[in-house]
Fold:
Amino acid sequence: MNAIYWFRNDLRLTDQPSLNRACTLADTIAPVFIHPVDSLTTWGFERIGRHRKHARCSAVLALKRQLIEDGSDLFEYSSEPCETLIRLAHAWRIQTIFCEEIAAPEEQHQVERLRHAGLTVVTTWQSSLLEDQDLPFEMNHLPLVFTDFRKAVENAKVHVRKPEYFVRYTTPLPAGVTHTQPDMSECRPINSWDMRTSIPYFHEPEFAGTTFGLKHINQYFERKLAHDYKRTRNQLSGVDYSTKFSVWLASGAVSARMIFENLQEFEHDHGANEGTYWIWFELLWRDYFRFLHHRFGAQLYRRSGLRSADQAPLGSAVIKTSEQFETFERWCQGNSGEAFVDAGMRELRLTGYLSNRMRQVTASHLVHELGLDWRAGAAWFESQLIDYDVYSNQGNWLYIAGCGTDPRGGRAMRPDKQALEHDPLETYRKKWGTL
Ligand SMILES: Cc1cc2nc3c(=O)[nH]c(=O)nc-3n(C[C@H](O)[C@H](O)[C@H](O)COP(=O)(O)OP(=O)(O)OC[C@H]3O[C@@H](n4cnc5c(N)ncnc54)[C@H](O)[C@@H]3O)c2cc1C
Structure:
């Protein structure tokens, strides 16, 4: 069988069950990556901002180099994915496409379109740390509160499966499919970056790829930062206070299982403590939002989220009037007049990264104080974040807006109180020029 392997989110060759499956079943594989063509969101800004684009392109570059080293290649296009895949399948006389499963509405629709065009699409779920079949409940009984989910998983001692490692990727290209000039018109690398960033890796051409990701993860554990994670994780600036693993989890250059394996080895060699436990705890949050998508799907994309359709989330007006647009624009640009929030929004816009604490503070401000539609905020984060992840972004925004699974019905955080607790010396606000 000749097949196309369509790289979607996960840009790696190791621990990629979907690719392993393709290599087992197909005799030849044409690896393809399609750079999404930028479009505007409903709120008028580009869907994929420059930092996110840069990170994604650097991961693609790393993947392509690895494939070429293994005697294959990566065929890159900048176009609409479904049309391109259908065209390639016809041109190359290929019937089957293998790819990972992505449990979000747009991505599911893409697979449906390909199937509708007569292609066989073989999808494999691989994005979570835990396998859904190992969970101690059926997916339609996924607990509606994270703590219940975590306790159920921990009480049942659910085992994390070992990563699937390839020795080498050796599947040949189909006959007649030749190395082409890649269409990378959607890749515009950033040549100068803001030195205040917490992710000081932009100058490395392949920084979001597997080799660099593993290097970062190794140094994180070698320097024993994991032991202090719980104490430092709520800080606002710097590379070491949190793991930064989200960069490589989002590019798919490293899997959650590969990270967990490193965590286990670290605990074995240096001892477990509340810091190491808390990394597992946060990775469970990541899984929880994934499984929430399995259970509720498109419902998570409604303005009312998991509330009934006629119940809009508290304080969340649809952005319609020019005044609302201006308020939203000021929030995006870091010019709302609320110094702590603005510092965060400037950091996000200028670096493509924001600490978890500042994501919460800025999101809460948009929803609970400015009273604007949380979906516009989620779209802005989607555009800006280099670690954008559809499940975590949607899940966290729903949670803060009070239309997801927060048992308290939403997280309203007062910026002045948050600033006092997390930026008592005003260092963060001064760093971003809002004081
Ligand atoms: C409004 C909002 C939007 C967010 N959007 C994203 C997003 O698009 N992509 C993304 O990866 N995370 C998102 N998060 C979650 C979290 O802020 C980031 O995962 C974290 O800041 C990434 O930095 P880190 O890797 O150093 O995290 P660490 O604190 O070191 O955490 C380790 C890992 O655990 C996971 N994790 C930690 N916190 C969360 C969380 N609240 N939800 C889900 N997973 C978590 C991540 O995979 C992270 O890499 C969002 C949070 C909020 C409040």
Summary: The domain at 1-126 is CATH 3.40.50.620 (Rossmann fold).
